[in-house]
Amino acid sequence: MLNETMGKAINDQINAELYSAYLYYAMSAYFEEQGLAGFGHWMRLQAIEEMIHAQKFFAYVNERGGRVVLAAIEAPPKQWDSALVAFEAVYKHEVHVSSLINKLVDLAQEEHDHATYNFLQWFVGEQVEEEASASEVVQRLKLAGQTQGGLFMLDRELGQRAITLPPQAQM
Ligand code: FEO
């Protein structure tokens, strides 16, 4: 059984994951408008990953006898100055999300909630990947994104991104 403190904190995290999806959909729309369909595609897949994260927390709360309570999702920004600025914002956001996950881990320890502590380890590992993939694109944009040719090459490459949906996300 999930206690109230832990349940409330995970509900907040569901909201944070859904906000992340909103943010990346907003970035996808921005890139589509800029004629950078590959970047737009990358961001849409990132948004889907965030919804899968929210779904994992949603399923966990239900499994542990808690109650999911959905709150309003803040509107994301609409505009960024460049692809580099947008990806720097992705990296910064993921570092923030990592800190939220770390706080949940701390809380699970304080609450002696070993099951939640164990469940959260997947997210600890996932955040390492999330930060690394955003940081890699930032570095690539710094190196190659300064010319129109380099930017379009990177756009084609990011357009190849694929994800495999986990079984619980195939609805
Ligand atoms: Fe759900 Fe990008 O962290």
Spell out the key features of this protein.
171 residues; mainly alpha; Ferritin; 5 helices; 74% helix; 0% strand; elongated; binds MU-OXO-diiron
Query: Please, what is the CATH homologous superfamily?
Result: Ferritin, core subunit, four-helix bundle
Strand content: under 5%
Radius of gyration over all CA atoms, rounded: 17 Å
How would you spell out the order of helices and strands?
HHHHH
Helix content: over 70%
- Unreliable stretches (pLDDT < 50, length at least 5) are none
CATH architecture: Up-down Bundle
Query: What's the total number of strands?
Result: 0
Give the rounded overall mean pLDDT: 95
The span between the termini is: 26 Å
Shape: elongated
The number of domains: 1
| Main sheet specs | none
Count of discrete alpha- or pi-helical segments spanning 4 or more residues: 5
